[in-house]
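Model: You mentioned two targets. I'll fold them one after the other.
Researcher: Yes, keep them separate.
Model: Target one:
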Amino acid sequence: MNEPEKAWHGVLVATALPLREGKVDFDGYAEHVGWLAANGCDDGVTPNGSLGEYQTLSAQERAQVVTTAVAAAPPGFSVMPGVAAYGADEARRWAEQAAEAGAPAVMLLPPNTYRADRRAVVAHYREVAKVGVPIVAYNNPFDTKVDLVPELLAEIHGEGLIVGVKEFSGDVRRIYQVHELAPDLEVLCGSDDLALELAIAGAVGWISGYPTLSHTPASSCGKPLPAAISAPRCRSTGRCIRCCAGTPKPSSSRRSS
């Protein structure tokens, strides 16, 4: 598989996993991944989404979901699995499995057994980062009860532990704060209903459930979203909206005004 340089860019579909009589239909899943790639969602997929059905799978099934997605992915199509687990050791093992399967990046929640404090969160990402595969953090304070606030993300990124964050807090101001505190940390939209706002603010990607749920062809809802996310344009000037604003990362004074 010939992945793009930054596998977390563009629209990555949070895929559903087909089940038949309580068992995973791996052939059906491979067909679904191939269908998405052929029908307009040609950036990639995110299997084993961190709040999906992976928690009910056996270890063998969870691993096979990843290998199935990688095998079904055409050239240039990213597979960025979720590697969430109760603790760092288990999450590291899933990151190792994803890397061995050929995944170019992984998505990682903070520890979710308890309300981890700052030290526990940093230690969690340190351990998984030892695998060497690029990590996109996943901030979902609603379900994990751990909020990866911009200051904490900047600390984790400053140690070189993450390359991006899937932002699901629902607060569109977060992306501006992240850009100020960690200019090189890339933000992905994690909420389908905030894709436009975060794209305008400079998100480089969108992990979306919409294409896998819609009954319309993926090409009608997935394009030209990658271009819109990477460089939203001003209707009057045709220039990148962020350039029209004078800076790609708005300052706090501009935001407060």
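Model: Target two:
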Amino acid sequence: MATLSIDIPDSLRNGIQELTSKDGYSLNQFLVCAAAEKLSSFATMDYLRERAARADFAEFDRIMAEIPNVPPDPGDELP
């Protein structure tokens, strides 16, 4: 495990400290979880971009063409 020293605004630190003290976990745990969530979201976006780049839109268009063109059921209309 590595140690990392960061500078954050006092107001942000105080807000995080207040939240973590209420929920019973440490500032370190909060920051590690927040960083892991952010890393995961970036990895997900990279995955989705890669999938979209190799998508077969002709297949998508073929499937969409099979959907009947009918009005929506009552209550399902767009505003």
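Researcher: Noted. Anything on target two?
Model: Residues 25-65 form one domain.
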